[in-house]
Amino acid sequence: MGLTILLVGTRKGLLIARSTDDRRTWSADDFLFRNQEVYSVAADLRRDTPRILAGVGTGHWGPLLTYSDDLGATWSEPEEPPIGFPAGSDASVARVWQIQPSTELEPDVVYAGVEPHALFRSEDGGKHFALVEGLWQHPHRPEWMPGGGGACLHTVLPHPTDPKDVMVVMSAAGVYRTRDGGESWSPANRGIQAAFLPEDQRFPEFGQCVHKVAFHPSRPDRLYAQNHFGVYRSDDRGDSWTPIESGLPSNFGFSLIVHPHRPGTLYSFPLRADAERFPPEAKCRVYRTENAGDHWEPLSAGLPEDPYYAAVLRDAMVADASDPAGVYFGTRLGEVYASRDDGDSWTMIASHLPDILSVRVAQLA
Amino acid sequence: MTSRLLLPAALRRYADERNEVELTGSTLGAALDDLAQRNPQLERKLRDERGELRPHVLVFVDGVSVRTGAAMDTPVPDGAEVFVAPAVSGG
Q1: How far is A216 from chain B (nearest CA, A)?
Q2: Which residue is closest to A84 within chain B, CA to CA?
Q3: What pLDDT digit, counting tens, does each position of A7-29 carry?
Q4: Distance of residue B44 Cα from the nearest chain A Cα, in angstroms
Q5: Does A80 contact B40 at a Cβ distance shorter than 8 Å?
């Protein structure tokens, strides 16, 4: 039976939990990066030796992007700082929001999305990153606003079969897409509202606060978006978006993931509103659609019945590669819930942790 | 012109566990530029890629805080102590 590793990034460190009994029981290592925020973590399984990467906020000493080739036992930090704006750019990396290994077609490429709004690309497996100048020099950039969490590029979506086709998502700038490997970028927000703007200006070309975009590798043209008020689907890789909110108790939230084997099955953890970031009716519920968003249904078996007031952040929900899938989410209350049956039932596998910022999972033979 | 950079415990792992390293340069900026050549990891902990002190890093040259004004132009006399500390912050 293989090893499943759950990576839980929190406000005060990284917890690595392991299961060797098909995810029935878990044991956790001690906290890594103590008292340091771990906004982003990734497992790169394309390598002969799996690599874990972490974006760590070290507080006083600036952001750190580090990696481990022994499943978290030891961590490496290149002698030259791994990520930073080039001289003369008058910017500095404040936080690494996303670490995204690219596809099997370019096994040494890893992307990093940072604050302020910028994309970095590594071609040595995540040891050193270079600024993607085409996005940084975009004429829209002076007009991009920070979201509530900061001016973050929080999502990177490489096309599974075309390495030159990459999408990024930024708060509050929206979705942008390149088809030429990062030299030029176009906004891809048609149909997504910016509910915070005056009523007659709510569908701008860019400036939306899109919280997360996801897709299934077998259907790269079909995208799903959780927006700052609005859940959407695109069937043309972002050229246009239409709402998919039937059955949802709210169209606000952060997390959105796709089932690993069923492209039309999604999971969301809705929140009441931007000004009330609690689960609707204080019920801890995951919502699932099995028809690409035509209708959503709540999943509650095993989740708390008491009033629940914690949110799930944009990268704190993930699915593993099993079928039925394991689905996991961590809350700002420091609890981790896991399902081994596509979300039909849930078990709390960790509690009393610090505020959870990111969750990723890796399954090894 | 050499001086001593005195390190807090959190940064000593970037200096082979020593609590101080030697700096060369007549101003704080020149001394940290020199450090960036010899130990870029350590220098980046003190300054960002623009060469500015990180917001919660305190630096004292012979006991005088250099956080205000043109910090990098601060003279560093021969034999000076450049003391680094994390500002009390967080929650």
Answers
A1: 37
A2: B49
A3: 999 999 999 999 999 999 999 98
A4: 7
A5: yes
Specify whether the CB–CB gap between B62 and B80 falls below 8 A: yes
Taking the model in full, what pTM does it have?
A: 0.96
Task: Tell me the count of A-B CB pairs closer than 8 A.
Answer: 49
CB contact under 8 A, B49 and A85: yes
Contact residues on chain B for A80, CB-CB shorter than 8 A: 40-41
Please report the domains of chain B, with CATH numbers, ordered by start residue: 2-86 (3.10.20.30)
Which tens digits make up the pLDDT trace of A119-172? 999 999 999 999 999 999 999 999 999 998 999 999 999 999 999 999 999 999
Per-residue exposure over A143-167, b if at least 16 CB sit within 10 Å of its own CB, e if not: ebebbebbbbbbbbbbbbeeeebbb
pLDDT digits (tens, 9 = 90+) for A52-95: 999 999 889 999 999 999 999 999 998 889 999 998 889 999 99
Over residues A262-282, the pLDDT tens digits come to: 999 999 999 999 999 999 999
Smallest CA–CA distance, residue A82 to chain B, in Å, is 9
One-letter amino acid at A255 equals: S
Strands A13-19 and A3-10: antiparallel
What is the C-alpha to C-alpha distance for residues A224 and A221, in angstroms, rounded to an integer? Answer: 10
Give chain B positions within 8 Å (CB) of A66: none
